[in-house]
Design a protein that fits this description.
Number of domains: 1
Radius of gyration: 13 Å
Shape: elongated
Structural class: alpha+beta
Distance between the termini: 49 Å
Strand content: 35-45%
Number of strands: 4
Helix content: 10-25%
Number of helices: 1
Largest sheet: 4 strands, antiparallel
Low-confidence stretches: none
């Protein structure tokens, strides 16, 4: 198992340590984490779009999960 860190973009966002067998598994855990976070903090979606980075131990971004809230026109 490898150690990765999840960090939501924005000020004062904590780094959350996770363990995963691969970067693909870490990305899947990031998507699950984001789903849980949004369920617990629905007002966070009001920010319009956000990014959850999967980082290595040194803080280098390995992959990002990007979500946007879009209001349709018309």
């Amino acid at each position: 198992m490898n150690e990765y860190f999840l960090r939501l973009a924005g000020p004062a966002r904590d780094r959350v340590a996770i363990r995963a067998a691969s970067l693909d598994d870490a990305r899947n855990l990031a998507v699950q984490y984001l789903g849980t976070f949004l369920a617990d903090h629905p007002a966070f979606a009001d920010e319009g779009h956000w990014r959850l980075a999967v980082e290595d131990v040194s803080g280098r971004i390995l992959v990002q999960v990007i979500v946007a809230t879009v209001t349709p026109r018309g």
